[in-house]
TrEMBL record:
Its main location: membrane. The chain crosses the membrane at residues 25-44, 69-90, 102-126, 146-167, 179-202, 214-232, 252-277, 289-311, 332-351, 363-379, 400-420, 426-447. It is a multi-pass membrane protein. Keywords: Cell membrane, Membrane, Transmembrane, Transmembrane helix, Transport. It is found in: Cell membrane. This is FMN/FAD exporter YeeO. Coiled coil: none annotated. It comes from Paenibacillus auburnensis.
Length: 482
């Protein structure tokens, strides 16, 4: 009887019950699996960097600048998945399970098609791309190997990110975490075997990392696809990936294109900055790559808190619990700032020792140490920008964050870095100062926007002041723990 009533409600487009785990979640319960997953990804990047450093510092420089390019391209084909993830959380918050399922499918499909196109371009045009990144002539052969084979498999990263985003926004943050653990272990083991020629195999250098990446990413994408197909009340089948509903796809595009431009602008700005570093020299580029790895550890838990806050706020916004939405963003910010500040202080104290794990070149270590104090300002500024920016994205205010980000990153981030870092001769210190100014400017602007409550006021008027999803007879059908 209950099943027939729920089916009838779904057929008529009315709200129906959702899986409990999609709604009854708190910030920490969402955040800790995301933290473990991101931490392991960061650890994997660190292991890659350490292993590559045993090849040469030149190889580290190639991996560093190539990964910035990959980051920029990944945002292009995960744009739909990111926007779809926010809409999935909002739909689940309002109890519309079928719409959430359809949106998730279309987001993954669009990301997969774009990812495959990008991978083909990288595989076919590795050398021209390497030259456009200002990679020196002697490093082009190394760049060719890394861009061709790691870049050629980049669509697998898109698949993994797309499946993971959809699964996490249903409230299941543990599944992607467990998958990440397994993938990272496999990747590290394969790295050791293929790079250094264990068990009698030939030493493959960067080529070994490329093969290891492809195998581990393929396994991860396969596991997450299986998990994704069972993430909703109605199981997703292979034929469902051809699903297309124009109205829902229009909503994905509306929320996604600003997200895509925002993310792409950030990573492209970082890519431009890395090209400036390449102009300074291989040692500066290697120092930034090593320090960037250490900085990632400082920010990992703060990033996880920001991501969990976005999922939670999107669920609450879908349920029209607007007071909790507004307060929840500040709770996310305060927790994130406390964690990031403590971590970056530890980096300041132990940074020189940690840099010694990557290289014995005292000039590179000296360059890295000179930047440690600036991180005491840079990382908290990133947290402010991330927490409040994600909160705005969660309620659909993606155009504002896009406009602010594109202007600030172009003028302050890239323009300032070239002016002070290259033209004025301040080097890495000048570039870092501009990075701080960029993050702080964006953070303060999105904080001001959030305090203005423009979208929240509009949602309150639209919903007539209702703060929860009501069913027949006034019974609450969806509840989110605060």
């Amino acid at each position: 009887m209950l099943q027939r009533k729920m089916k009838s409600a779904a057929d008529e487009g009315r709200v129906h019950l959702v899986k409990p785990k999609a709604g009854n979640v708190g910030l920490w319960m969402l955040a800790w699996p995301i933290f473990i997953e991101i931490f392991l990804q960061t650890l994997l990047g660190t292991v890659d960097t350490v292993m590559v450093s045993r090849i040469s510092d030149d190889a580290v420089a190639v991996v560093g600048i190539s990964n910035q390019l990959f980051g920029a391209l990944i945002t292009l084909f995960t744009t739909f998945a990111g926007g779809a993830g926010i809409l999935v959380a909002q739909r689940l918050g309002s109890g519309r399970q079928e719409d959430a399922r359809t949106i998730a499918i279309m987001g993954v499909t669009a990301s997969s098609v774009l990812g495959l196109a990008v991978s083909i371009i990288l595989f076919l045009f590795a050398d021209p791309i390497a030259r456009s990144l200002n990679i020196s002539r002697e490093l082009i052969p190394l760049a060719h190997v890394y861009l061709t084979y790691v870049g050629g498999g980049l669509f697998l990263v898109g698949l993994t990110a797309s499946f993971g985003a959809a699964i996490r926004n249903t409230g299941n943050t543990r599944g992607p975490m467990y998958t990440g653990v397994a993938v990272n272990v496999i990747h590290i083991v394969l790295n050791y075997i293929l790079i250094f020629g264990a068990f009698g195999l030939p030493q493959m250098g960067l080529g070994g990392i490329a093969i290891s990446n492809l195998i581990s990413r393929l396994l991860g994408a396969t596991v997450l696809m299986v998990m994704f197909c069972g993430a909703f009340e109605r199981k997703i089948k292979l034929r469902d990936f051809g699903t297309f509903k124009r109205k829902l796809f229009g909503e994905i595009v509306k929320i996604s294109w600003p997200l895509g431009l925002n993310s792409s602008s950030w990573v492209l700005s970082q890519l431009a900055i890395y090209s400036f570093l390449a102009m300074l020299g291989a040692k500066e580029l290697a120092a930034r790559t090593y320090l960037n790895t250490l900085e990632s550890f400082c920010f990992t838990l703060g990033y996880a808190i920001a991501m969990a806050g976005q999922i939670r706020i999107a669920h609450l916004f879908g349920a029209r619990k607007l007071t909790e939405v507004y307060r929840g963003a500040f709770r996310t910010l305060y927790i994130g700032l406390a964690i990031v500040s403590a971590n970056v202080l530890l980096l300041f104290v132990f940074g020189k020792t940690l840099l010694g794990f990557f290289t014995t070149d005292q000039e590179i270590i000296s360059i890295g140490v000179s930047l440690l104090a600036l991180n005491l300002i840079l990382q908290p500024s990133k947290m402010l920008n991330m927490a409040m920016g994600n909160a705005l994205n969660a309620i659909g205010d993606t155009r504002y964050t896009m406009i602010v980000s594109m202007i600030s990153m172009t003028v302050i981030g890239v323009g300032g870095s070239y002016l002070f870092g290259i033209s004025s001769g301040w080097g890495l210190v000048g570039i870092y100062c501009c990075m701080i100014a960029d993050e702080a400017a964006r953070g303060l602007l999105v904080l001001r926007r959030w305090r203005g409550r423009k979208v929240l006021h509009a949602a309150e008027v639209e919903s007539g002041g209702r703060q929860s999803v009501q069913g027949k007879g006034g019974k609450t059908l969806f509840k989110m723990n605060v």
